[in-house]
Each structure stands twice: as structure tokens, then as C-alpha cells.
Model the fold of this input.
Amino acid sequence: MDSDRLDALEEKLAYLEASNAELSDEIFRQQQEISALTKAHHQAMQRLQSLEDTEAEAIAGQGGSIAMDKPPHY
Done:
């Protein structure tokens, strides 16, 4: 193999290694973001469940009259 061809292959290899490192860094960043969003989603779902439970307890504590009462505009 001649020197020019070897230099070209080394240059391509260096470019591919740099591209691979950039992609790896991007995948790591995206995984961190996915993890943060998943955590936030779980916290929001827990908060929603807590609010639904609180509302159900309030309605049950008043004999369910809140759900059966007509709104004031009737």
C-alpha cells in the first residue's frame, strides 16, 4: 500500500472515531434527559393520584352530596 492511500485511510478512521465519540456523547445526554422526564412524569402521576384520592375522600366524607347537588346556575 502506498503512503497516500494509508494517509487517507488514517484520516477517515480519525473522522469516524470523532463522529463515534460525538454520537456517544449525544446518546448519553439524551438518556439523561429521558431519565429526568420519566422521573418528572412519575412525580406528576403520583401528585394527580394524590389529588384524586383527596377529592374522593372529601366527597365520601360529605355523603356524596357534592356530586349529586345541582350547580348554582340551575
